[in-house]
Amino acid sequence: SSSSSSSSSSSSSRFAEVKLEGPHIGRHDASVLAKACGLVSWQIANKFCSRCGAPMHRSDDGKSAKCTGEGCSRREFPRTDPAIITIVTSGDWVLLGRNPKWPPGRYSALAGFLELGETFEQCLAREVQEESGIDVSDAEMIYQESQPWPFPRSLMVGYQTKLPPPTFENPPRLVGAAGQTVALPSAPPTRVPFGRSNDAELADVRWFHRDYLRATLRGATDASEAAMLSRAFYGDENDDAASPPVQVPGEHSLARRLLDRWLDDIRGTDTSAAVEGGGLIERISSAPNLDALSNGHKHWRRKYVLCVVSDVMTDECKLVVRIHELDDYGYHMDCYRQLVGECRAIDDKRRLQVEPLGGGRMEFNPWCDGDGNDGVTRSGYGSFVVYGYSNAFPFERQPLHDLSAAIVQHAYPFLDVSWHDGGY
User: Fold this and answer.
1) pTM for this one?
2) Tell me, what DSSP letter sits at residue 370?
3) Is the dihedral of CA 257, 260, 264, 267 positive or negative?
4) Model pLDDT, residue 297
5) Residue 403, CA distances (Å) to 9, 213, 357 in order
6) Does residue 299 contact residue 364 with C-beta atoms inside 8 Å?
């Protein structure tokens, strides 16, 4: 019976890729596997003496090696190559990068190996500067935890790098129907070249909002607020180059644990997401549904309004942007009435009050980026510009384009969103 058992066991065994199977085993076994992978890699790379070229003899269960050359006797031990990995955060925004070898849509923390003579903090600042063009040398660098990474024999040292929260230059004080203060959205703290990276190792680096990542990674039920990027907005349904929703490394990785810890930290959350959980008002999306407006991957220009929606029963309120469904036609009041209709559809007791703040135009151009460079389509996703004004509202209620642009960027991180006060 023992031979049949051995045969059965042998037939069920198979070789497997460590990176694929690692996430499915326990911490203890994963630690043993990491050590084994590192030892095997070290043994393969150290068969001969680096001083005299003679064969090396392994001892101590494979954890050391001694040169067999006459008069040499050089000893070698396994080494670990330290590397830093960090999420760069600024208020409710986090900076993530994409390796061109990864599946479409996958982003992760920024990382890199230490160079000779560097501290961890110096390495972190250099890597972030090289990969994103952002200077974090004066930022707060907070050590989180470390993780062996046996590919081939690294130790990942995890940090959170905290930049100051982004603020508006002249923040307005907005109030709702019941006199409550309206929470302002935040814009990305610094501009990263959208669709491009300063580092040849990365295909893209960009800011993601905390609410967006919570919704996309944890299966929010409100798809419009979560802004799950559909193929309809960035290309045809059969277009393999169209962008999928964002993905991050698996739960076994240090990058994911750094990100999850930040996502779970609600202290200091400073955006309109703070009003979530109030019932009716959370069913109204702050951002317009650009997927429904896109009509495929084409250039369009439409009128928009920015409003405050207030729940007079709970004293909650939020900023809401709505865009007209027709290119260059229709009226700003149509956008306002559309939002009022949305509120009435879920609120027959008229708890939700809508107050327009102003309007203007929003323009999407898939063929150029925010700097006016033509030909940027799949790689840069195009530009989205907020500008103009509306004659439908009093002059003192002209649009706050910076707030409107921040709301769109919050929900659609793959767009290069900008704004200006010119035009009609």
Assistant:
1) 0.79
2) T
3) positive
4) 60
5) 63, 20, 11
6) yes
| Residues across the chain | 424
* Tokens representing residue 131 in the block: 């990969």
Which among 276, 141, 282 has a CA at the least distance from the CA of 210? 276
The two three-digit tokens of residue 188, written as one number = 């990305």
Q: 208-245, pLDDT tens digit by residue?
A: 998 888 877 765 434 344 344 433 344 444 444 444 56
Residue 51: Cβ within 10 Å count:
12
- Whole-angstrom distance, CA of residue 375 vs CA of residue 372: 10
Q: How many CB atoms lie within 10 A of CB 261?
A: 14
Higher pLDDT: 307 or 421? It is 307
Picking from 201, 209, 235, 210, the residue whose alpha carbon sits closest to that of residue 102 is 201
Residues 6+ apart with CB under 8 A from 355: 176, 177, 307, 308, 310
DSSP code, position 55: B
Burial of residue 105, with CB atoms counted within 10 A of its CB: 0-12 exposed, 13-18 middle, 19 or more buried: middle
**376 CB neighbour count, 10 Å cutoff:** 22
Mean of per-residue pLDDT scores for the chain: 79
pLDDT per residue as tens digits for the range 246-293:
788 888 889 999 999 999 885 545 444 333 334 788 888 898 887 666
Q: What gap in Å lies between CA 296 and CA 396, rounded to an integer?
A: 36
As given in the structure block, the two tokens for residue 89 are 């955060």
Q: Which token pair is 114?
A: 């230490």
Round to whole Å and give the CA distance between 152 and 222.
Answer: 42
The more confidently predicted of residues 135 and 244 is: 135
DSSP 275: G
